């Protein structure tokens, strides 16, 4: 379209959605807008309107902030935060979308906007409107924020506020279970006032009332679209936007004649009704209610009540929803809005908590007159009926539904699902959504007018829609969880025998992988390079290069989390695979050879331990260290680097800057990656979401090029991939650059070779056009990708590759399943035992209590696949011969005490009580940081009551993160505590065998258990490990924590007793110069040998057991401050029989004994050192390092702007 041409836009329907659009478009000089409304004027039926910060931002951009401010309830605040609590029930809810479309288009000089409204004025049925921070941002962009400020419930301010409080309310002992906090909190409006701002900002002549559209027709000869209205009038436009309501004429005509779409012509009912009305605050008891402070969602089974204030806190907007899921998707045949008697509403919500009952009783008594009196000060108010029933549209109801297929009746999983429904608000921006909208238009605009209109509507909906209210989920309780279906991604191998590349260098096995890959990539066009820069590469069909999905997951067994892996349907080959315990369990085993066998992320808090874990894992997973001729797999070490936070106080993983000193970066955060890349020769590294000292990790050429590639030696036959959408975040959450094109360019230039996401494929073309990056840089990235595939044998004949010979018979073998059991057993940690364990044979009646007692999927943690079986603790104890009486007692964290009585009764009848609880992925998960380290919910009170029964009592503590066990450890009525982590498919068997003594626990806690008040002492945004009195930081990890731990790192009890001694007395002095001289034969000085320490481990008890020998060192040599102690090494000896001894040999390298200076360089410092064995220490030895300090490593200096000295 020529820049001189004016685009004529016709908007049919003058509700809020159409008016918002008209106001926005009318600001553009090349757009003429007409609003065609069937009524005689704009009007708004209803009262309350809530907007959140995104909408408020729209008002500001529209220049309407001052207008809206006068009626707001709260001012917007840009800080963001989420706090989660869990419930066991939920609702289906109504989402709401409004688009400031006409006003936005009217800002373009070449777009003429007309709004056609069937009514005599603009109107909107309803009461309140809520918007969130993203919509507020759009309003700012449209320059309307100042006007909208005048009509918000209270002045928007940049403080973090509660967007919603969720409560379980269908009972008298109600409780809150979930909070949403976000920038600006929730911004609320009376709908009529919200509408008025847009009406006031529409240019004259845009709105046309009494115009009900009955049909439209494309004018192929003249171009454009002809509109016909019910009164016989006609007009034309270039673009038709149907905002004409739930019974849309535009939608009906557009979809008619297309069988696959005709089902969407008529509105579908969600099965829900909404009792809706307004309550003047003066009519409430005492003239107040909690909902006047912040919005509340009162939840019950198939019901929920939404309450929030409007009209400057003088009116409560109340909507009470009730759902009949059997009527979902029905065509509703009667009036959508009807009168209802008060008794119907009160009966529907009988038995609910008093906070709700008070509201509904007052609401049921309301009359239009009392409402009129309350709102007399607002001259433009259009009143809603006191009580009526609104039948929600099917589409609105489906937006936030939860069901069995997602949660399988496990209430504790509701939280992450609800959190995910709010993620779009905090993870996207209007600018980012606009880019997506532009892409939709590019993809669809050329396929005809109808598809153009559909794409344009979709794009605008994505770009400037106000945010929906995630209502409480509707949960039906029946069967077990069904994994989400995965659409198989086409996978094939290139044909080097008969394909297009058969005679090309890429198929020549005599050439080096880099040369083969370079020859292939030289054939790619620029568009083909761009298309294959993302994780879901489409390949190049003309060259016979098939599609390839780079995203697969296998951290503790093959997982269907990554789209590169698809399990077959049940009963077919490749329908399951062995599910090993989580890496934290393998870390607790402290058994390096076991890691090699499993070849399975975070194993613990010690840098050395994580480094050993990484080496052993990569050795097994990739088929060796630089194996020839083929790699078995390609592993990816993640998340690089200093990735330590998901969501804390409004700071999320995608906008957090991890400010780390050079010293601690080198000595702690980088250690596992150094081992991955330099020593174990990994082929993939993933850059993380966070920034490091102000630079987004995936845009940081210092960490990726200077350190990973240059310092560690990461060749060009391996690659760095972004975490998914981390490249996008460089622009839209870190705001490091000013466009997506710049984000793609800076990531590519810094060394991000694969974009998990679509930012590269969407924006690199434009980045090249703007000279922000070059195709040559992208070629380098693709050479790295395809060189790694060549190392896997991707282009070579299958018959010569050992790993292409694997079949279904090689999956989930008996040996693999036994290994999963062994890992679960070796990872068990005995934290307390007064002799009650192992259980005596006469104890047969077991009361098994707690939310983990019947755990199945919970046993796998996260990132898991479909296992061959899952053995719960209850199944394990039943198989072991116990008469098990199971009572859940309580859930993980919702505070429910209803089950206490049954649990106590079962305990009184039992010979032994076992409580199985702790935490799980409803408390700790990706995107869900814990806010405390106490036992969640009502678990501790239940444990205390069970302990008072006076029977033998064992607590099984599950989860990766620790909780404060102080009360359990100090109370003699708790006889034993066993930590089980996430023990995998055979977890139930491993637990039962451990408690009965069939196997003996010998695991060690791989992280320290802090007291509960630690979270009040440490700043979660403070990445410093070393204590700091000025900031109150008490130190992180066992090395630096200055308090007294509840349970120390490396602690673990046994069923037997031990005697430890040095096999030979270690040396009392070492010459630094001699050590360094000997080390020059090693690949790196820090890998040079220091010494090997032999420890005689004698079993002086009566039970055969394993033992982990852990060797620590402490010193005051080198720069202060000095760590408490540092792990030097460990060794696990197996099956030591009573009365016999075994030798544990612990080899220590120079790098472990060295200390790191403030520049990141490792040194051997002269001075006194003290060795200690075990936790608590049982064997010690002192030695001296003699001579001048010797530097072992030379850490690359960071750019001045990126260094941190905090």
**Oligomer designation:** single chain
Q: Roughly what is the average pLDDT, rounded to an integer?
A: 81
Using only C-alpha atoms, the radius of gyration works out to: 33 Å
- Widest sheet: strand ordering: 5-10-9-18-19-20-17-22-21
Proportion of beta-strand residues:
15-25%
Global outline: globular
Give the CATH superfamily of one domain.
Glycoside hydrolase family 3 C-terminal domain
CATH C-level class of one domain: Alpha Beta
Structural class: alpha/beta
CATH fold field value of one domain:
Rossmann fold
Q: Could you tell me the number of beta strands? A: 49
Provide the CATH architecture of one domain.
Answer: 3-Layer(aba) Sandwich
Largest sheet: 9 strands, mixed
Total number of helical segments? 38
Low-confidence stretches: 74-99, 365-413, 442-490
Structure description:
It catalyses: Hydrolysis of (1->4)-beta-D-xylans, to remove successive D-xylose residues from the non-reducing termini. Pathway: Glycan degradation; xylan degradation. It is a single chain. This protein has 1206 residues and is of the alpha/beta class. Among the domains are: 7-77 and 92-149 and 187-247, FAD/NAD(P)-binding domain (3-Layer(bba) Sandwich), CATH 3.50.50; 815-1009, Rossmann fold (3-Layer(aba) Sandwich), CATH 3.40.50.1700; 1058-1201, Immunoglobulin-like. The chain is 27% helix and 21% strand. It has 38 helices and 49 strands. The strands form twelve sheets. It has a nine-stranded mixed sheet with strand order 5-10-9-18-19-20-17-22-21, sandwiched between helices. A six-stranded mixed sheet has the order 33-38-37-36-34-35, sandwiched between helices. Strand 19 (303-310) and strand 20 form a beta hairpin. Helix 9 (342-348) runs antiparallel to helix 10 (354-365) and helix 19 (583-589) crosses helix 29 (814-826). It is globular and about 105 Å long. The two termini are 55 Å apart. The model is unreliable at 74-99, 365-413 and 442-490 (pLDDT under 50).
